[in-house]
Amino acid sequence: MGAPRVLLVEAFYGGSHKQLMDLLQENLSSCCLCSLPAKKWHWRARTAALSLSQSIPTSGSYRVLFCSSVLNLCELVALRPDLARLKKVLYFHENQLVYPVRKDQQRDFQYGYNQVLSCLVADAVVFNSSFNMESFLSSISSFMKKIPDHRPKDLEQLIRPKCEVLFYPVHFPDVSRLLPEHKRLGAAERNSEQEAGKPLHIVWPHRWEHDKDPELFLSTMIKLSERQVDFQLSVLGETFTDVPEVFSSARLLLSRHIVSWGFLPRKQDYLKALCDADVVVSTARHEFFGVAMLEAVHCGCYPLCPKALVYPEIFPAEYLYSTPEQLLKRLQSLCRRPDATRRHAVKVDTSSFSWSTLKDRYQTLLSLDAPL
């Protein structure tokens, strides 16, 4: 294959970060991947550059360096001057300037500061959505006001010309064999009586962490149950060290509705669960792209998302809600007409976010005619 010309560096090799790096390595020629496991995110953000500076092989063939914004790129290229000459591409899955914390006093200034520094030394800065880009750039000035004196100036003007939006490339697998009959058949062929008799199946496929607001989702489900609304429920997604307490209490209260509860490590099982569901809900207080929602739509689910964050950029207005009361009302209405919900053709073109659509732009971004 020849010596690698694209150096892929991932300080947090897990989840969507891992999927992107794997996709690039598998589909683009002449790549070399150097990574650290997806553990203890905060320590990766603080110290990964030093560790990676010692493990990245030295090579005169590298032309492009592609990394995510977990890495302090400024530190890496200072520690490894041989990498400073490469075309340096920084990819933002999220940004620390607006990442939610319980209280602003708890926000560690260093994480956002590292991302600003990385932008200043990068040649190209790429965001997975316009929301991610604009929320980052527009927050730099106020973020830097936390510095007591000698504040840097004009950082947004220095960084913005390097920036572009390039959607995260989702690999949408063929799920035709996993789809239930009513999702495979056209409206005229469906057995509407059978559909009407089966309760609506609601899925929540997100990380079990506070920024996805499971409290709002599960309290909404409990209210539906208390109103004697008939539905089925699957609560999926990865769990980490600190699982919000609401999950254990809600599981008891919602036990008669539950079809699936907990993380499904096999991708095939996860896709089957999405295919079996009718409605997918997000209650996120933080979302810069949202792979899980798009995967669920690809599997034939009707989406309900907050009218905030990245969602208006991807989903038409009819799938957005503004308040918890609206979410409850929308779900109650969908549950009472499961047949109509299942007949609805979702107006989201998932192909816009697929690797096959975005591949050429990624190839251009990582083109080998980079400056030396």
What this model shows, in words?
With 372 residues, the protein is α/β, with parallel strands linked by helices. It has two domains: 177 residues, Rossmann fold (3-Layer(aba) Sandwich), CATH 3.40.50; 172 residues, Rossmann fold. Helix content is 41%, strand content 16%. The chain has a six-stranded parallel beta sheet, with helices on both faces. The chain has a six-stranded parallel beta sheet with strand order 9-8-7-10-11-12, sandwiched between helices. It is globular. It starts with 5 loop residues before the first strand and ends in a 7-residue tail after the last helix.
What would you call the structural class? alpha/beta
Helical region count?
Answer: 18
Distance between the termini: 22 Å
* Rg, Å, rounded: 22 Å
Number of strands: 12
Shape from CA axes? globular
Q: Please state roughly what percent of the residues sit in beta strands, choosing from under 5%, 5-15%, 15-25%, 25-35%, 35-45% or over 45%.
A: 15-25%
Look at the structure and give the mean pLDDT.
93
Assign the CATH class of the largest domain. Answer: Alpha Beta
CATH topology of the largest domain: Rossmann fold
